[in-house]
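Let's see one such:

===
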Amino acid sequence: MQTPLTAIDAARRIRDGQLSSVDLVGDCLARIEATDAQIGAWVHLDRDHALAQAQELDAIRRAGRPLGALHGVPVGLKDIIDTIDYPAERGSPAFAGRRPDADSAVAERLREAGAVILGKTVTTELAFLHPSETRNPHDLSRTPGGSSSGSAAAVAAGHVPLAIGTQTNGSVIRPAAFCGIFGFKPTRGVISRRGILQTSETLDQAGVFARTLEDAAFLSDTIAGYDPRDGSSYPRPRPKMFEGARADVPVEPVFAWFDLPFNDRLDPDARAGLEEVLDALGGRVERLPVSDNLSALVEVQRIIHEYEICQHLSETFDTHWEQISPTLKPVVERGRKIGADQHREALEVMTSAIAYFDGFFKDFDAVITPACAGEAPAFESGTGDPVFCTIWTLLGLPALTLPLLSGEHGLPVGVQLVGAAEEDDRLMRTAHWLINELDASDA
């Protein structure tokens, strides 16, 4: 098998008649067959159905009918995202055999774009804490991260060029960082969450995985859009993320680095790598002290998340308690003790912090911050610490992890950039500049 194509290259070749969707999908299925017994990225996969989608899309192209932006390109979806043609069991025996009766908004947009929904990727239990059986393709003894474990692993292993996950704390950025790929969570409200398991109405957000910055931006544009059936979706134009990923900056960007108290959780090699990046940027980075109010947002996120998952999944926890993992049960018990007043106060603090950062990005193009504590930890120790993503997810800001570093054992370590709300294109443009700048400094 050849080196996997990028999604953009694959779509172009299919459009130009240089490649068939059947051949591309067949190549992906061959990669899965060769390696997924060890990795475990996929939970629902139907070879015949995937090839039938590809055959239909090839017939559409041959007939000269309109082609979508991702025509014939295979995509993996996290198994909390509903599709009418696959189960959505949400990583839990409580939902074993569940078959959605409608597509999610994300699946609708992918079909409109001509993508092949190849199958469903593994999620941790209810997209939360309890690890799945998925392994990191770079080292099978390590976790790929969570909760979007299978989506990150599938892209890193070359099973698919693109996959979709979700993030309520660190579930896109951290797995992408551990697996050495690009992970992007757009501004809250850019992508509709309709048809995705709701664990937190406030915090749940969709995100994407890809092997290139441009692919991540292109997929995000494809699945973005207003949806009045999602309370977080906003009725305004979306940032053009692909244009941003290909654009040159008008002036060299300025970055902020926060000396957060949990930075002491960084592994020494990750800290050293980040310092090298900051040194390479020199005067383009301003190191900022951190107020107690900013640090306290980690606890604010916990209160909102735990309170809301207990509200949204109350019936599941009540009727399937014996099927809930020992990892999740103590969190549910703690969440049920959080009162409505405490939850409301946490939402007020979040709103105040969002207002602060609305002004912050007038002076900075992006915050540069760790994506994870270091290399992926051992499989047995869980999916890794999400704390470096917590604040930015709470605020709903666009966040992007870049596979720029490696750790002591040669495994990937991501660097995270965070941008201004609804300026995802600007964040992509800044990331494009940063990658080129660091490449030039290494030459």
About this structure: The first strand starts at residue 42 and ends at 45. The mean pLDDT is 97. The CA atoms of residues 244 and 429 lie 5 Å apart.
